[in-house]
Amino acid sequence: MTLLACPIFVREPNAVHDALDQADRAVQAGARLIEWRIDALVGGDDAFKAIQTLLRDSPASCIVTCRPLWEGGLCEVPEIERLELLRNIIESDSPPKYVDLEMLALERSPEAAIALIDAIKETNTRPGVEVGLILSSHDFKGRPVDLIQKIETMTNEMGVNVIKVVWLARSLRDNLEAFAILRERSRPTLALCMGEFGLMSRVLAPKFGGFITFASEAPGHETAPGQASIEELRNLYRFDSIGRDTKVYGVIGWPVGHSLSPKIHNAGFDAIEHDGVYLPLPVPKEYEHFKATVGSLIDDERLDFRGASVTIPHKENLIRFVMERGGSIEPMAGFIGAANTLVVNEDGSIEAINTDCPAAIKALCARLDIEPDALQGKRVAILGAGGVARGIVAGLAQLGAKVTIFNRSQNRAEAMVEAFRELAPIAIGEALQLIDERFDIYINGTPLGMNGGPDPEASPLPDGAPLEGALVMETVYNPVETPLIRQAEANGAITLDGLAMFVRQAGTQFKHWTGRALPVDVMDVDRGN
Ligand code: NAP
Fold it and tell me: Against a cut of 0.85, is the pTM above it?
């Protein structure tokens, strides 16, 4: 079982009571260990008294860490003084459960470091006392070139109970190396990756037998880049149910931080008791990154990677990737040239599917209370000519709707018209038409209005567009109430927010991966989040 540890920085002696309150909250939220980060508390009687109070009143077993500047911490005092402080703590009346010692300290001040290890041995002869030594190595710049050698040296070091290696991940692939280290361990080990690519190593530590994973008490209290909060780890990422056989899914995009998908799919897995976890999987936008990363996730058999949602800017990359690997491409996805769903079967075969297109048509028909056939002859203005617009246009054109595309760049609109030439004639509109003419349906396929997008305050429709009685459909779902939705409501249109399509496309993905329907109550996601 992986212990969930909450690191808490204590920056000055008079912050001890607040720190203990924070530790209480962490334990109530599910932390099993508290890591007291005392880097800034070194020096003076007050500081030592404060540390003793922390150890005596700690609401859970604790690790004491006094990280020096040279290892990414805050402690600036001379090395001998720092190690002597740790020794005094170990020899005190309330010794911690673990003390963290940097591997480099053994090289920089061997005598003082060995004296510390001897002090642990001596303390452990006291009845009922057991202090463990965590030997650690951190790299905030990237994967250390001598990582494997380091682990070997740490493993051979006498008196060490736990090995800890942490580095800044350069891509998702670094997590796979962390998992290999955990699988091959010969003593309790932590192998964690920091940064935006490292979340996977923190969440999946129980799958590979990691000894400890760290999580902050609340957002904003992180002690390392990429650390999730206890609440996120347990409630969003299903930490307590992750085991050796847990299947891994995720959303592949760049960026992926805003995605609602982890919330929906993890809640769905919970509701149907599917042994799976769904993670954000950031992959930089170039195809080479996509190919290398997704290929490694699929090829690592122990990861049990079973599928992904694929979003901007990788929907076309997914088609290319699946084609190159000889997988199967659902006809609609092939026709559109973009897919948003990857299915990895148990035998390693892969499929690319487009669930955006049917989801948009279903959401539209449900809102208008019509059958898909009734879309024939409807005048539809599509704003944008990117991936999402392409899927919606294909679906609408197939059903005989009269589609006009309005896009910022002419060449992309022309490319879409050309691609669908055999399906139906599609017009390219001039901006003024949006004021002079009335359409039955308007659909936003641009990121305008999206939080974190190019212009969160903008609507893709001009003021004065004649919207009364028309249906205005949004695809942006973060926020749910976009400037376009407000404009449509103010002008007497029927509105359909981006969640309606989003939840339907997610439901179809869920069915492909689990064989089960996404439970309805899960769809009632926290609107606006
Ligand atoms: P995409 O392939 O990058 O296409 C974006 C489109 O928006 C392009 O046509 C682009 O025009 C246009 N655009 C971008 N910035 C613009 C700006 N500042 N002003 C005017 N036009 C601009 O993206 P996508 O995959 O189609 O996604 C678009 C939106 O759909 C995103 O906000 C995404 O969240 C949403 N979406 C929602 C769902 C759902 O289920 N609700 C599913 C998928 C996507 P150019 O051709 O001139 O670059």
Answer: yes
